[in-house]
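Page header: ASSEMBLY MODEL / two components / 230 residues total.
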Amino acid sequence: DGGITQSPKYLFRKEGQNVTLSCEQNLNHDAMYWYRQDPGQGLRLIYYSQIVNDFQKGDIAEGYSVSREKKESFPLTVTSAQKNPTAFYLCASKGLALKGSYNEQFFGPGTRLTVL
Amino acid sequence: AQSVTQLDSHVSVSEGTPVLLRCNYSSSYSPSLFWYVQHPNKGLQLLLKYTSAATLVKGINGFEAEFKKSETSFHLTKPSAHMSDAAEYFCVVSDYNQGGKLIFGQGTELSVKP
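Prediction written out in full:
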């Protein structure tokens, strides 16, 4: 089955620790995205990558880091610099669109991070 | 700048009655608009998308939305609600800058009463 997997589903972290969230896709998509969701709010973009070995900051990148060494993988590290990391984190991917069209983003099941 | 506003944070309907979830958008060019659904503690699933073809867009599970440029609206409707429709719904516009990032509305929680 093609899709996006995220692991772990639940993650607990002590203050001051870095943690890495996994995102893998087998859809052969070029672009990948990380979003953060807080209760009662829509999603906000953290980082995105349109090709391997390249990524850009989104709207709320402070305290986060990413890498894109392989097309199918886009891990997100939540560092100790992130002031309020408790949230639901969603990874998405999108294929290249034909001219004049737009491909939707496909989402993984999410990782819920709780800082203790 | 692109933005979307969902006019209701919570909508409650009875099973078998129509559903209307309202969304207004702001865009400096012809937008690509989406409705996504999220069930509790799950990822998002695409219901439907508008990308400048037909203004009435049909999606999955009996949902549809109509793009009205004069009203800058993209409301989501369904003729008859089912219990399984209870979820959070997001109206979304794409931004051609920033790698085609999605800009989300605040979400509308749909409750369906038996």
